[in-house]
Design a protein that fits this description.
Mean pLDDT: 92
Distance between the termini: 53 Å
Number of helices: 17
Strand content: 15-25%
Length: 587
């Protein structure tokens, strides 16, 4: 997109031209405000690594970054301390220092690593003081002033990367991965939601499905998980991080975005039946009345900017290179191409797939010399679940010959022979003989959620939108409300009745995730619930009834439509389990 690139470069050039004599970037309004420069230096790093960037502009960015790091070092030496978000998010800056250290002349390396060490020392000890501590909030935060930096949602998402970022310099990769995995597991244990993200309607909010999650939390979590997967010393740890990343990329992130990307919600919810402007009576604790609305910049403007790191960083990490093994690692399936000049004599690879909607993937490869291809198999295909589901349905062909399906800690590993011809060929094809079956995940706190492959399903509420304000271009603020009943439960596991997944032709890319164009739907026989059985609370579905011992409440079963969470703006994706008390407890 030449027009977009020109616009980006206009602002990059303007920022660099205004760099202070001491190296500071941007207006110097508060000498101890380091954090507000972290997003800028990360953006400069992202531009610097882009193949389309000119060498001249790359050189100016590198020079500006080194001068800025010098300014940070000088301010710390003068006695200024890291405070608030400058301390809690400091490993974003450390990652940027590491990036520029790797592309700088060796004469700068020692000084840059010394600065990174000082910043690590002065930043928050998230492991000792929070994730691995009795201080950690194990339920919804009610007093944000008690430990503001530790309870803030985006801070937690960014802190997940602390262990693996510092391990690059500290040298203990095992300890770094263990720290980051502990952080993620702890957040999901006490605050996890069905879409794969943890709740944080500004601050950590527990496991109630009607509590929200800020969009910034989603994209920051995705990048932390990418770095964990990239640097973890074992395949099993990488697989765990990539499973979590895939769930966010296909559920939580699109679940906060409009189909045309001109609007988003500041908060998303596993369960909601409206997303309105000016909701003075709301369930979320710390954000304002517009936080659920889809719009250009609802609540705060941060997500309007920050949402744009989500998919670019996801796409640029669909493949990793492992030079020690002369290998390429395929992390998450999505249509993509990659060129890796220093593996396999210069591998050119195209991944052809409709995943998560299709039932096959093809790696079209041109490689002058041999290399190893390591492919993470999605979690639902790794399951051992009888002869007609999961791993038993997977078939693999390498160079046209069927191969044994053997997993190594979540990965398929194949040696790809050299291909000296100019035209590429299908080097690896993977197919599963049946479409993913509908499955459910039950818990005491969140009832039952339904999945097809990696996709979380949600009740179709017949959502209706009304514009409340329009902006330039195609942006607008929207009120979204349900036109269909939202109170439905599912019977205990084993008694549910789901129709087969109905796949629609996805259409031309970029594929739509609008409600009316969703490529997948499932018919489900569900149990309608009386208003007093599952009451609303502050404009949202109330807490899920616990082990609802109301039989079927005398109401006739109904067939309702489920569709992917990503194809909805409001939805019910955590359903009460409706049945005899003793039946629910035994399941």
């Amino acid at each position: 997109d030449a027009a977009l690139l020109t616009l980006v470069e206009k602002y990059i050039d303007g920022i660099l031209a205004r760099q202070g004599a001491d190296g500071w970037l941007g207006p110097d309004t508060a000498h101890d405000d380091f954090w507000s420069r972290y997003p800028l230096i990360l953006a400069l790093a992202q531009y610097h690594e882009a193949p389309s960037a000119s060498q001249e502009r790359k050189g100016r960015i590198l020079d500006a970054a080194l001068r800025f790091f010098g300014a940070v070092d000088a301010r710390l030496a003068s006695g200024l301390q890291l405070a608030s978000w400058s301390a809690s998010r400091v490993h974003d800056l450390i990652w940027a220092i590491h990036y520029f250290a790797e592309v700088s002349p060796l004469s700068h390396t020692q000084g840059l690593l010394a600065l990174a060490s000082l910043l690590h020392e002065r930043g928050l000890d998230w492991n000792g003081q929070w994730f691995n501590s009795s201080n950690f909030a194990r339920s919804a935060v009610t007093n944000m002033s008690a430990a503001y930096d530790f309870t803030h949602g985006a801070n937690n998402a960014q802190a997940v990367k602390r262990g693996v970022v510092w391990a690059r310099q500290g040298g203990d990769a095992a300890a770094g991965a263990a720290e980051s995995l502990l952080a993620w597991r702890t957040l999901m244990r006490y605050h996890g939601q069905p879409s794969g993200i943890f709740s944080a309607d500004e601050h950590l909010a527990g496991r109630m499905p009607s509590r929200g999650t800020e969009l910034c939390v989603v994209v920051e979590s995705m990048w932390s998980l990418v770095l964990l997967a990239q640097t973890a010393p074992t395949d099993g740890q990488s697989t765990e991080a990539l499973d979590a990343l895939e769930k966010l990329a296909f559920n939580a992130l699109p679940g906060s975005l409009s189909d045309d990307l001109w609007s988003h919600s500041y908060l998303q919810f596993a369960n909601s039946y409206q997303a309105l402007s000016n909701e003075p009576d709301h369930l979320w604790a710390f954000d304002g009345p517009d936080a659920a609305m889809y719009g250009l910049a609802p609540q705060y403007e941060c997500c309007t900017s920050n949402m744009h790191q989500g998919y670019p960083k996801f796409i640029t990490h669909l493949f990793f290179a492992d030079h020690g093994l002369n290998a390429i690692v395929s992390t998450v399936w999505a249509p993509s191409t990659v060129a890796v000049p220093d593996v396999g004599g210069g591998v050119e690879l195209e991944l052809r797939t409709e995943y998560p909607f299709g039932v096959s993937v093809e790696y079209v490869i041109r490689n002058p010399s041999a290399f190893q291809l390591r492919i993470r198999l999605p979690e639902f295909l790794r399951e051992v679940d009888g002869p007609h589901a999961g791993l038993a349905t997977v078939q693999v062909w390498v160079e046209g010959h069927e191969r044994t399906v053997f997993l190594e800690d979540g990965f398929l590993v194949y040696d790809i022979p050299a291909w000296p011809l100019p035209e590429p060929r299908v080097g690896v094809r993977i197919a599963w003989e049946v479409a993913p079956k509908v499955r459910r995940s039950d818990s005491a706190e969140q009832g039952s959620s339904v999945f097809v492959g990696p996709l979380l399903l949600a009740l179709d509420l017949g959502e209706q939108r009304r514009a409340v304000r329009r902006y330039e271009f195609e942006a607008a603020d929207w009120n979204t409300s349900a036109t269909q009943v939202w109170r439905y439960g599912l019977p205990p596991s084993g008694d549910e009745r789901f129709g087969p997944p109905l796949w629609r032709t996805p259409g031309a890319r970029p594929q739509s995730h609008a409600a009316e164009a969703c490529p997948l739907v499932v018919n489900a026989t569900m149990l309608p619930m009386a208003e007093d059985a599952w009451p609303a609370a502050h404009g949202a579905p109330g807490s899920l009834p616990w082990a609802l011992a109301l039989g079927r409440m005398g109401l006739a079963e109904e067939t309702r439509l489920l569709k992917p969470y990503a194809c909805s703006s409001i939805r019910i994706s955590a359903f009460p389990i409706v049945g005899a008390l003793e039946t629910v407890i035994t399941t």
